[in-house]
Amino acid sequence: MSVWKKSILDISYINRLRELGDTLKSEKLLTDCSACGKQVAIKAKACPHCGAKVARSSKWKWIIGGVVVLTIASSFAGTQKPSTGTSQLKTEQTSSATLTQQSETAALPEKQRAFLAVIEDYKTRFGAAANELQESALEDERVTSIAKLLGSGLPAENWIGEITSLETNTQGKAAITIRLSPEVSLLTWNNMLGDMAYPTMINVGTPVYKSLINMAVGDKVTVSGSFVVTNERKILEGSMTIAGAMKSPEFLFRFTDVSKM
């Protein structure tokens, strides 16, 4: 029962008490004079026999006043409970989301988990950098750490992700983005100009292209392929700023397989 409904019922109960009080008063028209003991009309202001002032009972005022106080107190208590319940619900939802994320991370391939851990580590270190020189040095160090982890050619095999974009250009080539975690993605170029120097777009008729025909944004997939390394020995990344590259990187990737889970 809601607080407002409860309050309405309490008010109705008070009104019934008042009606009962009026009924009792009407049934008892006479009372005894406290001075001379003779009967006198209950509504009389003074005893007609001795002139003493008639005492008037106010017990109904006290009863009704008490009920009103209890009603206000119960209403106030009722308004506090939803807040506690809401706070508890939010805590439970947060805990559930954390457990779900931990479970999903545990299900990832070992190399993918290690890769995401490297990204998270350098993101934290980047946030503590004192100047741009340190930031640039951290970007280079991250490339070295990833290369050491993945080995020659920087391959990735059967990594798990979610399709967040799937489109084609004017020539029909496919462009795709796969999210590995909330902050890390693998993607192809989505324009021919970028694709000219380091080709990543998926050609029509290839096995990967044929697989993508039956997929959509939101699909869970496993992917294989390799990261793209530039002539300067850097891992090609699509962010416009170094902050974006270090905090939420979008790595250019050559996909050799995309399979729906």
Could you provide a short overview of the structure?
By secondary structure, this protein is of the alpha+beta class.
How is this structure best described in words?
The chain is of the alpha+beta class and 261 residues long. It has two domains: 3-101; 110-260. 49% of the residues lie in helices and 20% in strands. The chain is built from seven helices and seven strands. The strands form two sheets. The protein has a five-stranded mixed barrel with strand order 3-4-5-7-6. It has a two-stranded antiparallel sheet with strand order 1-2. Helix 1 packs antiparallel against helix 2 (59-106) and helix 3 (110-127) runs antiparallel to helix 4 (132-150). Residues 1-9 have low confidence and may be disordered.
Major sheet? 5 strands, mixed, barrel
Give the averaged pLDDT, no decimals.
Answer: 81
Question: How much of the residues is beta strand, in percent?
Answer: 15-25%
The oligomeric state is: single chain
Low-confidence runs: 1-9
Q: Please write the string of helix (H) and strand (E) elements.
A: HEEHHHEEEHHEHE
Tell the overall outline.
elongated
Strand order of the largest sheet: 3-4-5-7-6
Q: What is the straight-line distance between the termini?
A: 46 Å
In total, the number of strands is: 7
Helicity, as a percent range: 40-55%
